[in-house]
């Protein structure tokens, strides 16, 4: 495939945008190519600036569970656009979306809209500290909660892809109250809580890790966190920016039956437009200004276009059988990929929860960040490039999830499995 226009655009971007991209995950450095510049999307497909067509499993890193330009979402945005783009004042749409979130997510009684997942986690941490009067935060290695200073420690995702341990510009004092522990291991958490439980404001966790690649919680892990937090008066925060409305309508907490004190949302909630939210029990959320003393604000929070797109998306997701059909597609794809690699004798591990999955290039069972890092990154990069040449657009990092959308057809899935079969054959030579 020719990528001349993308190359010219990237060259121009390098002159005016750091690294030529507005988010490091898009840089494609880990797979040894320059990034493609996408021109448009339709259903399960994206087209780059050169007109090349790809079946898209990035789905804008998760939000596009309905696919690109879903008619109901487009219609909602167009209708709202006629009313205006932003008002800096409350709208009826905000109330409706908040009611939908409260109805869907079992731990949420009140919700505050923000503009990104990073804002959601940042605000939730501030609120947890204010409610408990404590400073310390426990997170987990490989879990990424946005580029919040206090949480950019052992953060997985783009940080892991680029080989960055944290980030310059963050004072030591800021991360001095953050403890990062191994995911899926309760013993270190119990040890820290036993010694410092009275200092811990919250435990924040991705209930299904999606930023070291997809890693599901092992039986008892989430409940164990819930029990430890409750025992010592700390808050449990679920970062469901990826899993919210992705693995189930009410998020991972409905799948695993464990309720956090605060839930962070994003991605799917905005139907493809910038959005974030955090919510929890009424008694906790009423601490937020103007009702309470904890301050957080945003000029574009609850933006009408994003809220309208989110409402249209959630209405579609609430349809009968939606998640069953999506599960069937994702299961078909993961099973097909496992067979392809198995026949070729190439060691991989496929982790999947619902419609999010990762093909790890390791024979080891991947249960945490350390086992995820045993993956063969060179083999992954080769596979990525071979799939791209065959018209399949995958996340450009071993430590990210690929996403199946409702727009992916049986033909898409079969073509993807066939492309993988051809790509793996080349990997063997």
Number-wise, the strands total 14
Largest sheet: 7 strands, mixed
Helix share, percent: 25-40%
Strand order of the largest sheet: 4-10-9-8-7-5-6
- Would you identify the CATH H-level superfamily of the largest domain? Type I PLP-dependent aspartate aminotransferase-like (Major domain)
Gross geometry: globular
Question: What value does the Rg take, in angstroms?
Answer: 21 Å
CATH architectural group of the largest domain = 3-Layer(aba) Sandwich
Query: Taking all residues together, what is the mean pLDDT?
Result: 94
CATH topology call of the largest domain: Aspartate Aminotransferase, domain 2
Report the portion of residues in β strands: 5-15%
H/E topology pattern? HEEEHHEHEHHEHEHEHEEHHHEEHHEEH
Number of domains: 2
Number of helices: 15
Spatial gap, N to C terminus: 22 Å
SS class: alpha/beta
Record keyword descriptors for this entry.
single chain, 429 residues, alpha/beta, Aspartate Aminotransferase, domain 1, Aspartate Aminotransferase, domain 2, seven-stranded mixed beta sheet, four-stranded mixed beta sheet, 14 strands, 39% helix, globular
């Amino acid at each position: 495939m020719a990528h001349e226009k993308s190359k010219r655009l990237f060259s121009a971007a390098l002159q005016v945008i750091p690294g030529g991209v507005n988010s490091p995950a898009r840089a494609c450095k880990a797979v040894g190519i320059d990034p493609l510049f996408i021109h448009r999307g339709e259903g399960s497909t994206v087209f780059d600036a050169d007109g090349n067509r790809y079946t898209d499993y990035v789905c804008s890193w998760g939000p596009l569970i309905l696919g690109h330009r879903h008619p109901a979402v487009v219609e909602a945005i167009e209708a709202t656009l006629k009313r205006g783009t932003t008002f800096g004042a409350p709208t009826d749409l905000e109330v409706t979306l908040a009611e939908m979130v409260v109805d869907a997510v079992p731990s949420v009684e009140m919700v505050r809209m923000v503009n990104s997942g990073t804002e959601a986690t940042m605000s939730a941490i501030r609120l947890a500290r204010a409610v408990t009067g404590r400073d310390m935060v426990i997170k987990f290695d490989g879990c990424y909660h946005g580029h919040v200073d206090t949480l950019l420690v052992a953060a997985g995702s783009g940080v892991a892809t680029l080989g960055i341990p944290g980030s310059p510009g963050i004072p030591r004092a800021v991360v001095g109250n953050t403890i990062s522990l191994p995911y899926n291991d309760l013993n270190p958490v119990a040890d820290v809580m036993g010694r410092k439980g009275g200092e811990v404001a919250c435990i924040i966790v991705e209930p299904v890790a999606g930023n070291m690649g997809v890693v599901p919680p092992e039986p008892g892990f989430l409940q164990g966190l819930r029990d430890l937090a409750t025992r010592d008066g700390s808050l449990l925060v679920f970062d469901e920016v990826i899993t919210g409305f992705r693995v189930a309508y009410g998020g991972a907490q409905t799948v695993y039956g464990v309720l956090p004190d605060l839930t962070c949302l994003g991605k799917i909630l905005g139907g493809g437009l910038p959005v974030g939210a955090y919510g929890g029990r009424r008694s906790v959320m009423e601490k937020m200004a103007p009702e309470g003393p904890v301050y957080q604000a945003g000029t574009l929070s609850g933006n009408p276009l994003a809220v309208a797109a989110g409402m249209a998306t959630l209405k579609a997701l609430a349809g009968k059988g939606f998640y069953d059909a999506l599960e069937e597609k994702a299961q078909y794809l993961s099973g097909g990929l496992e067979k392809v690699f198995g026949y070729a004798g190439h060691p991989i591990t496929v982790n999947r929860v619902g419609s999010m999955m990762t093909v790890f290039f390791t024979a080891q069972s991947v249960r945490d960040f350390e086992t995820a890092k045993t993956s063969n990154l060179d083999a992954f990069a080769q596979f990525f490039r071979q799939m791209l040449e065959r018209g399949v657009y995958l996340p450009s990092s071993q430590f990210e999830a690929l996403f199946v959308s409702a727009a992916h057809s049986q033909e898409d899935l079969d073509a993807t499995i066939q492309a993988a079969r051809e790509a793996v054959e080349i990997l063997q030579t």
